[in-house]
Fold:
Amino acid sequence: MRWIKRLAIFCALAASGAPTLPAADNGIGVQALVHAGVSVTDLDRALHFYIGQLGLKEAFRLPKPDGTPKLVYLQVNDSTFIEIFPLPAHTHPQSPVVFHIGLVVKNLQDTLHALQANGYALPANAFEKAAKLADDGTYYFMVQDPDGNFIELSQMTPDALEAKASKMLAKLAQSAKEH
Structure:
């Protein structure tokens, strides 16, 4: 389970707008997380969620020989993407390999209001749940794309463990506190 938390922190850092930083000397050369791949059963429905409701932008598509999309890249920030893979018709998605995608937002309550205004159905207690400080010092709320993939929306606080470990996230936490 510890690796899941580490993966979530890594995804949150990469998706938050952090510039590509030199990796720790791990002897392998990993530099940054640039994308997470997600399989979807209905591309139009998925794009409505990721673009229309979550506000990401389509960066590019790669076509199959028949012209249908092989994959669609959605841009989170300058160097981080979510890669959408449409599954063939009548194909059931396999068990998820990625537990969730973590996105850092400036103000969680504002983000939830924006999602709701964009037609995303939130449970009645969403704003109450999102107002509770988590054990790691963040405010977060989990949403799902149309295929059930979990997206964690997190708001950093100055006391968040992730903010204490990252100068860039500490700046985001301070900025959120000022507003």
